Structures are given as C-alpha cells and as structure tokens.
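QA checklist item 7 of 12: single-chain prediction sanity check.
[x] sequence parsed
[x] length recorded as 260
[x] structure emitted
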Amino acid sequence: MSNSFSKTLASQPKKLILVRHGQSEWNEKNLFTGWVDVKLTEKGRSEAQRAGVLLKESGLKPDILYTSKLSRAIQTANIALETADRLFIDVKRTWRLNERHYGDLQGKDKSEALNQFGPELFKTYRRSYDTPPPPIADDNKFSQFGDERYKEIDPNVLPKTESLKLVIDRLLPYWQDEIARDLLDNKTVLVVAHGNSLRGLYKHLTGITAEEISEINIPTGIPLVFELDSTLNPIKPPYYLDPEAAAAGAAAVAAQGQKK
C-alpha cells in the first residue's frame, strides 16, 4: 500500500453505526428487562428489517458486527444484516454490551413500579447516572446466576444491579481494546445492542454531561451513525438514517412507565 493511499485512508472518517434492538416481548409488556433474555416481537422483527433496509439504502457497508450476549440484540443484527446483504461479516459478542442490569426491578411492570416508588424514585432508578436499583438476589427467577452465557466470566465481575455509570465502566475497556481498534483499522463497525449500553457509548463519544445523557432516548431499530476522526472524536453530530422516525421513537421510549 502506497504512503499516499495510506494517508488518504487514514484521513477518511471512521464510521460507527449503532442500532438498538427491535421491540422485545418485554418492551411490549412494559416490563423492566435488563439482562433477562427475551425474544423480539413481530413488530421488533419488522423494525430490525427496516434497519437493514436503511443500511442498504444509505450505502453504508458494515465490515464487522458487535452484539451483546442477549437474544433480542442478536436477532435484530441477524435480520438487519440479512436484509442488507451483509450476513457474511465477522461477528464478536460480549456481555459488556449487555443492557443495564436492573437489579431487583427485572421482571417488574414499569407502571406498577412507578406507583410503588413514586415519580421521583422511579426516575432515579430508571435514569439516574450513578444510582443503581436494589440488587437482585441469586434465587430470584429473573437473576442470571448460573446462566451458561457467562460461565467463563468471574462471577464476582458480573453485576447484580447497575447504574448507567457502572455500564460505562464495564463497557469502556472493551471499547478501547476491541471496537476502537477496528475503527482505527478503517473498518465500518456495526454495534447492535441496548438502550443503556448505547447511551453509554453515546456519552463517551460526545462528552455530554451526566444530566444531559439522562434526557437522551435511543429509539429501536433505527441506525445512528457516528463519523469519527483519527482520534475517534466526532467530526459532526451523530445522525439517524431516518430522523423523523427516530424522533417519534425516542418520544415513545421517554414515555415508558406512563402506560396504564
């Protein structure tokens, strides 16, 4: 490779595409999900397919996929990539991209939790940057204690509850060691994950405050594109491939917990 070509390649924006999984069975039921493994609904499958259409129409061609260990993200990625004719790309999966662990809230109805805790504490548990919900007990049926997905990981490392800050703490080492390296190798990277793990990446990349990230809602199934420089700082604001649908989807996410 010539020096001039290498310099041209290095100067091109690094492309990072974030996709939140489509509607899951527990999204539909308005339940706190966290690390509980649930599948996509038919609507979620349609959202995943739409994500693939948007990718294909945009001309963006992911070279590598990162997902969490949870089925709803994996299903979304597979459907989107099949639609975009990119099923052949390499795949890496990690628990560090999992959704925030909601502790003892996992499995609880959001409307019931709102009534139980009141609006202030409910918002704190749901959106506080550094206040996690009460931890889940190992014998709770919604605990991940003994889950074979995580059998190779030190049990002391796996969370029993998390705040967004703790999500970022467990995500950033993986970002630096894996995802960032692929971006610096000029690969177009697709990350299909969850509302909070993607919000964690969003905060890290944009540098917004803890207060500002609490108001950021990432809609399901709509690719969000970051164009980054050689130091992996954004060269312009991130953008959705369908801005109008993204605005409506973000509003729907913000309203969760208000359903009766």
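[x] summary fact logged: The longest strand covers residues 14-20.
[ ] second reviewer sign-off
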